Amino acid sequence: NWDKDFNRVFLSEFNIDPTGLYDALFYDIGEKTTHVKTLFMTCRAKMLSDGIIKALRDFSDEYNIELIYDLVEPKLPSCSWLMGDSLANQKFCACSVLDKAYMYGINSVKLSSSAAVNFGLDRTMCQLFEDYSKPMTDVLFKDAMNAYAMGADLLLTHPQKLDSVSVADRKKYGILKNSTRRAFCSFASKSQSLLCGGDRICDIAVLYPIYSMHSRVFLYHTPDRNFEYPDPGVCNDYTILLNSLSSFCSQDSILLHPETLNISCRISPGRLELNSDGKAKSGFKIIIIPGTTVIDLENILKIKEFYDNGGKIIATVCLPSFAAGYDPGKENDPNENDGFMRGEQYGTDDDIKVRDAVKHIFGEDAVRSNLIRHHFYNKNDRGGEAYFIPASKTDIDGSFYTDERFLKKVINSFKIPLDVFMSNLIENPLSDGFNGSFPVFSSLGLNVRIPYGGVISHIHKSREN
Description:
Number of strands: 20
Mean pLDDT: 85
Largest sheet: 6 strands, mixed
Shape: globular
Low-confidence stretches: 336-343
Strand order of the largest sheet: 6-5-10-12-17-16
Helix content: 25-40%
Radius of gyration: 22 Å
Number of helices: 16
Distance between the termini: 49 Å
């Protein structure tokens, strides 16, 4: 449904009259399609997060009641047309969900815990076990640990009722005895007492590619294949990337909203410091740009400054070539000498600035459309290093992503002291499986048995020094 106030809000946000531009939401209208779609969906997402969601926050504050809402499920955050800006939606309440099966939904916890860091929330909630069909005793504890390691610090548990389990399954899988339930409550309460509050410390920031997701939307368009959500975009690898970092590379990461990067982060030699509430917190040593076609100009210029000051940069799948903003009066004629990736010669003034920054960081070779390599590497004399790793794998839903083994090799190649390092861990290449919808998760057999029993991950928090 289209709100009657949309045109007014759009005009106030971007100083552009959207009348006559709506066609871009349904089909290609030429060179400006990418820009117009990005603005439309950005405005729509803002109306959701600053509308009904903010109203719920105001209502709960007025009556002093708890606000809990859950807008993330493993694949939904990639569907901008449906959820809007999934990170911004959680700026009033960070709540994720692990349900249906062991480890199904771990990337939703990473998204919620990142929202808490971005927006200064004091806790990350996680709903657990609501729809599990066969909750074995070991799964009860293991999934709680998965949630804690991904950043949750308050579990909302829904233990299965005895009468909902068949007699055969009671014998096969075991039933949670009262003693087990008491032991779990004791374990959970102690863990939460330890984890609530404090500052999250990790080395890696992953830029949230929301504008790129917005730019991919075509309303009422569904790909002709067996997948429960419309096309999230072949370059949209950020949830797979989060899983690769935690479950394969054994590194914690924070998903950084573009506005947080612009407003709350500053550059120091070799570090990007997050300063969300007046004091320096995490000092990121590595910034990862997931597959992104559209990026905020201020974001890429700040990342360029980070690189020039000794920062380490990784980009995966594809490099950005368009700016998120749009000024209809500053379009440029096609430049045959531009030759920037895929032959995209059209661009606004801001697009050209984005492309110049990308070339500066990753090198001229990385943006040449006729050059194919396993990876591209660039460095400067101040210690800055940048890798572009093109796609090398395809997820079951068609999304491209980068090989976890090479990603881990690149992180280790930077020779920087990582905050936490765990050696000799089992490498579990299930990043794309964890990213799928539940039918995909089930078809891979992950709901029955996850190879090696799961993953080892970690979280580091600092509290009162």
